[in-house]
Amino acid sequence: MHARARPASAWRWIPTLYFAQALPFVTAMTVSTVMYKTLGVSNTDIALYTSWLYLPWVIKPFWSPLADMFGTKRGWILAMQLAIGASLALVALTLPTTRFFQLSLAFLWLLAFSSATHDIAADGFYMLGLEQHQQAAFVGVRSAFFRVGMVSGQGGLVYLAGTLGDFTGDVALAWSIVFGVAAALFVLLAAWHAFALPRPAEDHAIEHRSHAAAFAATFASFFRKDGIASILAFLLLFRFAEAQALKLVTPFLLDPRAAGGLGLTASEVGIAYGTLGVLALTAGGILGGLAIARDGLRRWLWPMVAAMHVPNAIFVYLAVAQPESIGVIGAAIAVEQFGYGFGFSAFLMYMVMVADGPSKTAHYAICTGFMALGMMLPGMASGWIEEQLGYAKFFTWICLATIPSFIVAATARVDARFGRKAAPLP
Length: 426
Prior knowledge:
With 426 residues, the protein is mainly alpha-helical.
């Protein structure tokens, strides 16, 4: 048997593991919308069908016990990274075909299920591979490299596709090359992790029946929490407006000005939204976490609700004014994303608060499942709504759609001390 990882060896695998967790997620959720828009797919179809890709993250709590019942977390990680690589390669092969939309969506589904399963195994392995004090020490590292994965996908891959498209004059070929590069990267990541991941003694299969019974009890206990109706409303509706806006931001940036968009190229979207936007999002998230740690969640709940939702008005301005300066557009997106990152800290800490207790890992997974459901369902109709209203009226509707978020925040029960650092003893 092998001991848990030493801090020096942990640096070999934690950054790459959480980079590998972020890249397929952002590819399924965001990069795919840019790709389909540049390939001529309608906003209605983009929003409807890519929203369905949230489903694996919605239902992953239901199959998460499989990672405990069969094999090791280490084995699941390696297998899923190879499956992700294969999915990306298959998407690359389908894009030049006449039925690229249907075929690539099928393989993006495989990518999404593989990625969600990888999340389960990676998060479980993190707790097995490190001592408790090491887990706390590396939590910032895993978060930082998750963001690196997001920038690499939402910024790097999109920019590369735009540049290759301009060079070759063939957008489908450009995206095929990009997905092929991503597939090769995941083969390399699997090879690296086969070498770098430790082999913790605790990483082994758990006896089937006892775990199944324990999981059923844990799942039932979540729905016996005090104020469960308020909790579920918060998880499902807090991101009601964002779920709709998220699917249409990149089509809005890419659509020509005659169609109400801003007429950016894919490379410009990669810089403005995928890079500057994600960096601003990260900065807002860091400051939000520090604010909650200092004063507690209750103190910052309303300022964060406002910070997350009020900046949606920026997209109304962009849709009406249609500024031509990439600097103005990038700055506007950065402000909106900073506010979103700052405000989203409250949502994350609310889930941590709800999950706190003996079964916090499983309960947090259930919370994230409901969060994903709250993103999936509103997003499915958002493309149709935009095509009926146009971008300016659609983003005005998004501002009105934030009202349920304020209502569920008003009814949320938040412990005044939760999230705040304990005062030092005299």
